[in-house]
Amino acid sequence: MDILALNCGSSSVKYQLYDWKKREVIAKGMVERVTIGDSFIIHEVPGRETYREEYECPDHKVAIHLIIKTLSDKAHGVVATMDQISAVGHRVVHGGEKFTCSVRIDDTVLDAIKEVQHLAPLHNPPNIAGIEAAQAVLPNVPHIAIFDTAFHQTMPKPAYTYAVPYEWYEKHGVRRYGFHGTSHLYVSKRAAVMLGKDPKDCNIITMHIGNGVSHSAIKNGVSVDTSMGLTPLEGAVMGTRCGDLDPAIPMFIQQKEGLSAKEIDSILNKKAGILGITGQYTDRRDVIEGAENGGCPRCQLALDVEAYRLKKYIGSYAAAIGGIDAVVFTAGVGEMAALVREKTLEGLEFMGIVLDKEKNRNTATRKRESVITTPDSPVKVFVIPTDEELVFTEDVVAILEGTYTDHMHFKYSFCSPAFQRK
After folding, report:
1. Which residues have a Cβ under 8 Å from the Cβ of 39 and sit 6 or more positions away?
2. Which one, of 310, 327, 422, lies nearest residue 366 by Cα?
3. Tell me, what DSSP letter sits at residue 46?
């Protein structure tokens, strides 16, 4: 059984083909510059050289046609016929309050996803376009939706309610939803294994730090709070997003600079965060290099601001869930940037977090799970490479087999101590 996972962005389509029987990735890749011209595909197969082809993709349907063509190509493909694909899993960023777990897509589900697309105008429309395109190209296989927001639907009402007129929630769905749910799910389950506990017996803070950044407070195995809100703009300092700020600032700058609401929204999403502070960088490797060489004071400031904000979230979430067993760093920066981790955890010994600085500095991998605290540290800190695609795949297979339930009861393969990441 081969499962195709699709992640459609506004101008890209990521894909992965997974052999469920062998439990291994057959191929993965990305079509870039979809809808904007000069598009191309990067196609990776284990044991082969990476394949690149320039191919104009004016819309997502053509991009998915290109993926199918590449997967079945005699020279570069990995399947003899598309009949080998048993199902397609689709990442959907926003499911609103309607979806608390992954579901098989039918007309009713697709209409419900469309009804909440105004809550994620940058993400849901391309997700929807990808679903419709894939259904057109592969009409005879099941299509499954996996929601970023689903994992966080266990949040209690005080955690997701904003102090704004309540009718905004009733009429427009204004509340905290949270994102990166599949990543928080995966690493929290793996952290429970590393602690030698059942997930329901664990209090964990998970920190997904990439270009986008979000944290989750997980009490007794379920999310009770998360840093992103109605949209992915709230929360931590990110690559180009501002995160938490005084809500009067956008209106103040709008008046001072004569900008439109749309321009302000674009700035806060695409020109703020690390890029806003440094004026030139989003990649933390560039920021760290600029700070360590001493030639860029604003790079040092960006690192200090990011680490300070991360530290505050650890403290506030530990208070919210009544103490913690572990903190988990994941995603590109969380897994690779030892300096960001060290600055974040500095001074948290009073909370029971005792960092082993040498272990931390020697941990920079997307493949291995690591403990970066000392053996006697009461609270453990783990670096766990995330695997959202595996969550996608296992949800899809379980739905096909009729064994799927919500994540509190469903037993993922990676919840087993015997699990080995390939």
Report:
1. 31, 32, 33, 54, 55, 56, 57, 63
2. 422
3. T
CA distances from 198 to 189, 330, 408, 420 (A): 9, 20, 11, 18
Same domain, 138 and 247: no
CATH assignment at residue 90? 3.30.420.40
Helical packing angle, 388-401 and 181-195, nearest 10°: 90
Q: Which of 59, 73, 83, 148 is catalytic?
A: 148
Residues 137 and 216 in one domain: no
Position 51 pLDDT exceeds 80: yes
Q: What is the pLDDT of residue 307?
A: 97
Summarised one tens digit per residue, pLDDT across range 309-327 is 999 999 999 999 999 999 9
How many domains does the chain fold into?
A: 2
Those residues whose C-beta lies under 8 Å from the C-beta of residue 342, and which sit 6 or more positions away, are 355, 357, 360, 361
Whether 237 is in a domain gets the answer: yes
Whether 122 has a pLDDT exceeding 80, the answer reads no
For 360-393, the pLDDT digits (tens) are: 999 987 789 999 999 999 999 999 999 888 898 8
406 a catalytic residue:
no
* Rounded Cα gap, residues 124 and 107, in angstroms: 16
The closest alpha carbon to 120, from 21, 206, 229, belongs to 229
Q: Do 124 and 233 share a domain, yes or no?
A: no
Domain that holds residue 83: 2-147
Global model pTM greater than 0.85: yes
Identity (one letter) of the amino acid at 138? L
Sheet order of strands, 12-19 included: 51-54, 40-44, 24-32, 12-19, 2-8, 85-92, 143-147, 103-104
